[in-house]
Amino acid sequence: MRHMRQSPLVRNVRPSKIPEESTDVILSIKPKYVQSILSGEKRYEFRKAIFKNRTIDRVFIYSSAPVKRIVALFEIGTILEDHPAVLWDSMREYAGIDAREFFSYFAGKSRGYAIGIENVQEFDEPIDPRVSIPGFVPPQSYCYLNSEKCMIPQ
């Protein structure tokens, strides 16, 4: 695997893991990007805003409409924060998205985040969160799994 060039301005915003404080999140991701993640083409999930709890270990992927299911999970590698142009220059090869879509998404933003995707596990049977999570409402961006609004039964 090639090492990525990293801008000196790119900050790794993930602190040391603190297991007793860790939790998981559900991220809403469009189905076409979910497929890119599952195929291994997309190795970073880009976000305009990031969860405040930086001890997140795992992300459950909610594939938005028309799928509307939790289809997989991944472990978070590193989380990088920088200007979108710097993120693109550093990660375009692993973005799983074209430049037009990337810069359209980040239009007007001076900061962006790249969440490293590692150890993807696709579920044999996707989870219908409306059945598994009482009162589930698909998150606009993300929700913590240990919150009262968002829990997956173990």
Structural commentary:
This protein is of the alpha+beta class and 154 residues long. The protein is 18% helix and 33% strand. The protein has 4 helices and 7 strands, in the order E-E-H-E-E-E-H-H-E-H-E. Strands 1, 2, 3, 4, 5, 6 and 7 form a 7-stranded mixed beta sheet that branches. Residues 1-22 have low confidence and may be disordered.
Which fold does the CATH topology refer to? Archaeosine Trna-guanine Transglycosylase, Chain: A, domain 4
Intertermini distance: 34 Å
Low-confidence stretches: 1-22
**What's the CATH class label?**
Mainly Beta
Tell me how many strands there are.
7
SSE string: EEHEEEHHEHE
Overall tally of domains? 1
Strand content: 25-35%
Q: Averaging pLDDT over every residue, what do you get?
A: 83
Q: Could you estimate the helical fraction of the residues in percent?
A: 10-25%
CATH architecture tag: Roll
Task: State the fourth-level CATH superfamily.
Answer: Hypothetical protein
In short:
With 154 residues, the protein is of the alpha+beta class. The chain is 18% helix and 33% strand.
Relevant terms:
single chain, 154 residues, alpha+beta, Archaeosine Trna-guanine Transglycosylase, Chain: A, domain 4, seven-stranded mixed beta sheet, 7 strands, 18% helix, globular, disordered N terminus
Write the layout of secondary structure elements.
Elements: E1 11-12, E2 24-29, H1 31-39, E3 44-47, E4 58-63, E5 69-82, H2 84-91, H3 99-105, E6 112-127, H4 129-132, E7 142-144
Parallel strand pairs: 2-4
Antiparallel strand pairs: 1-5, 2-7, 3-6, 4-5, 5-6
